[in-house]
Write a structure and sequence with these properties.
alpha+beta; CBS-domain; four-stranded mixed beta sheet; 6 strands; CBS domain; repeat; CBS_dom_sf; CBS domain protein; CBS_dom
Amino acid sequence: MKGNAETLLFSKEVAPFIIPKEQVTVVKPDWTLDRALLVLTRRGQNSVPVINDENQIEGVISKTNILDHLYELSREKENELDFSKLNQFKVHEAMDLNHSGILSNSIFSFAFEILVNRSYIPIIDIRNQFLGILTRRVMMEKVIEYFHGEYLQTLADPV
């Protein structure tokens, strides 16, 4: 039974676990960095997807990306960090481009491996349209449910 349950979980599509785009905080690539930082801070997010007007993912922006961009600017001019300059720069100038999405029919094990180093993955369709996100938290909850079920099964099975 153990092998079958494991196979079912790790070969299952991730579609049922997606947080839909309507519930996801996103920013636009042409927003100013101060606006993006305000959204991140007010929503309690460390990073969010950057979605263009065609509903496609262009990358992600994080507080760290914004602060790193500001730091690099201050180093170039040998100045201190000047947060008032954030309104002069756009999200697309500081965002991380190395966060492409995965398809909603991707299997659990594939998404799980990616989420080891990310808190979420953008989910896209075959036309590259943003559908939502899959979070590491949701995936971990499913793994915990699986192991909890396995543990209960071992208690129920006579030795």
